[in-house]
Fold this protein.
Amino acid sequence: MVDVVTILTGDCREVLKTLPDASVHCCVTSPPYWGLRDYGTATWEGGEASCSHTNHHGEQGKSGERADRTFTGSQNYYRDICAKCGARRIDAQIGLERTPEEYVASLVAVFREVRRVLRDDGTLWLNMGDSYTGYWGKKYAHKPFGEDRTPDASTTPNKDTPDWWAMGLKPKELVGIPWRVAFALQADGWWLRSDIIWSKPNPMPESVTDRPTKSHEYLFLLAKSDRYHYDAAAIAEPAQVEKEGKIIGRGKQGYAKASGANGRQPQQDNSGGYGDGKVRNKRDVWTVPTSPYKGAHFATFPPALILPCILAGCPVGGTVLDPFGGSGTTGAVASGNSRKAVVVELNPDYVKLAQDRCGMFVER
């Protein structure tokens, strides 16, 4: 185990500026998803000190989609102005932007700084989930797109409700956040190399009955340049698929050797694996169950999901960066596999979780 996990407290947009150029080998991270969670970093200005600033109405729309986008656990905070006491909410956390465009712009700025910190052969492994717009009743939702869509008191839960129509969206619609971010990063200079499907065999149950239950998220592999470190052999998977002791499938193509540090595809052979037919190049659908975490963090990604990212993207002894560190999963997996880590987290409570989880750390 490598005993160096550096945990930095603060907004990653400021903390990343303190890191030196080309100082990390890869970045493995999962930013706060747009409009899905409030991580409790807000402060309130004015109003009454004894007020909770919470609104317990309109937390969930009739279709089961989230109608009010800011909540922490069971609490549902007013977005901008507390309707009870008039206090003004002060919070710059990523994920609570008013529009998808503002959210995407925030992430582009973050990962532009990540690109500076990455070595020239570095990669970014980016886990992204999607969001739905809210739904506030048939009268509002079913208005034709060309008609007046001004909401009224009978169809909107509170004044903090976003104006989806002004954003070019309709109520109860899938926003497409992962691909919006991926294309924006591509336009900003990243090499978009792979869209990996994280398939969840144990997804969160949903109450919706007019669409399939969501059971996947995206994991994008992006590179700083066209030549990058990617250890294909480190994450190769079995070439033979067995069921009840019988071989039912075999990889149709494989590699004669690992791809090494340049990210180029090596010479193929017909063995179905790396020379001996036992393993094959890892596919881009990863079935990984969600895993419980006893700490007070609402959105941890499972260690089994990010282990292949770290093994393929960072050499032994190298450094992995996570600018949205949360409870420290990236740091724990990196240190447990002979890599160093730099973890940045905004919420001091989560920093404590990460410190406990990583065990050994250096905090600056």
